[in-house]
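[job 4471] stage=fold_predict status=RUNNING
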Amino acid sequence: MTMEVAGDSRRYALVTGAGRRLGYELARYWLAQGWQVIAHFRSATEEVDTLQALGAITLQADFENQLEVLALAENIKKNVPHLDLIVHNASCFYKESDDLDVNLQAMDAFYQVHMKAPYALNLALENLLKATPYPNADIIHVTDIFADRPNAVFTAYCASKAGLANLSLSFAKMFAPKIKVNAIQPGPVKFLDSHTEAAKAAVLRETLLGREGGFEPVIQMIAAIVANPFVTGAAYKVDGGRSLA
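[job 4471] inference complete, writing structure tokens
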């Protein structure tokens, strides 16, 4: 799909991991607001086809491969006049096992996807964010409530999300005042199909509001951050109170 650049004052948003779940819903939301969305995806899905039909610019990259991350950044830089928003939503998850080599490979993947890719994209696309004709651009990192209180069963995953949370603070300092940088810490937003009823019940018992949140509360929070001109360096929990339980 050809990107229009000359004299283009539209708002541009990059959503990573837009091929499914939250990323897909975020991309649909910003498209509905009239923004031009660059929807990154790892694997082709029906959702990616839908986004393209709705007018999104869909770009593929495997974030576990740093060369593909850098190629994605170059593709965007060549074709977009500016950026107004980056939502770092792309994520990966592998269960830890009794095999140390398997766990170390998973840790490499977590580090690459959750920390190294956002770090590289933020730096590579800094000038596009600063080129926005609007007062501020935004970067939002989707971390996790376990970034603050890690679950020992998922040690490497939680550590990588904590690293992303720390990067968010560093970039808030580095990119001020033109670029606001914040983080979202989701809790039990949307269960996977693989979750058993017993697992769901256990999580909800630990959630003060006692229910699954859905994607809409996260979308609302991100939209509120973008609309607010005076927030940066913050992390917002969207977890139904689970982090307190």
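[job 4471] summary: The longest strand covers residues 179-186.
[job 4471] exit 0
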